[in-house]
Amino acid sequence: MIPANFEYHRAGSIDEVLTFLARYGGNAKILSGGHSLIPALKLRLNQPSILVDIARLAELRYIRQDGQHIAIGAASTHKDIATSALLAQHLSMMPQAAGMIGDPQVRNVGTIGGSIAHADPAADWPGVLLAADAEIVLQSTGGKRTLAAQDFFLGFFTTALAEGELVTEIRIPIPAAGTKSTYQKFSQPASRFAIVGCAAVVQVSNGTCSHVRVAFNGVSDSCFRDGNVEKALEGKAATAENIAAAAAQAAQGVSILSDHYAAEDYRKHLAQVFAKRALSAVAG
Fold first, then answer.
1. What pLDDT score does 51 carry?
2. In this model, does residue 40 exceed pLDDT 80?
3. What is the pLDDT, as a whole number, of residue 192?
4. Contacts of range 205-213, beta carbons closer than 8 Å, 24 or more positions apart
């Protein structure tokens, strides 16, 4: 497995990256962690004429509070997120999810920006970002635009990222007091990708659930917010009975994947099981 010939450039700035993308268009690929791109190169599923390495761009690697948001640079590694005290304080499902990704080698090198740009349906970040009401900042030589996560993830390995654009930042609103979050996953034991992953965010005040956000990855050909589960628990008392009833609505009306890891019926069952675990962790 030998890749086709390509030029390699280590970018020194965001502006330099955007210049390469504008110049080469679809013939340029961004190299960050490389865990998805490099195998595709070896199999010649991707044959770019130029690789632009952004892994060492300090201006894309940060986790900081920005007003009422937490801003995460796209080149922040999974380990950066797993060890972030700021995220642990405000949105604990982010470090929790990061710690479940791959193995130490993957977590030390892989980046959140690369993961969401690839949009693997079994990747962890897409579902987590949907539940977090995150926004994705995209930049090109023409300027910046910001998309809600639900508008960024479009389908099977498909996003709203246009030619010439780079994911530069993920912005997450700081949840209100009383909000808890979690990410629960049934993972493929070798790759640690999600067969079913469920992210949940719930605010509980005086025993009542509000701002319920539940999202899945690994279940369908793209991540999705589960409105049926959310509606079933929104405004309800945080009781075991209400949580079980809400979880039973998981993955209703969704086209569910079936493969050698899990058949459709089993995946749907797992979605309900892990929705219950997630909701119990944040509202039980």
1. 86
2. no
3. 92
4. 205/178, 207/237, 207/238, 208/235, 208/236, 208/237, 208/238, 209/233, 209/234, 209/235, 209/236, 209/237, 209/238, 209/242, 209/283, 210/234, 210/235, 211/175, 211/176, 211/179, 213/130, 213/131, 213/132, 213/133
Domains in the chain, start-ordered, CATH in brackets?
Answer: 7-53 (3.30.43.10), 58-173 (3.30.465.10), 179-283 (3.30.390.50)
Question: Whole-angstrom Cα distance, residue 235 to residue 180?
Answer: 16
C-alpha R_g of the chain: 19
Q: What is the mean pLDDT of the chain?
A: 94
Res 4: pLDDT: 79
**Number of Cα atoms under 13 Å in the Cβ half of residue 262:** 22
The alpha helices in 11-92, defined as continuous H runs, are 14-24, 37-42, 78-82, 85-90
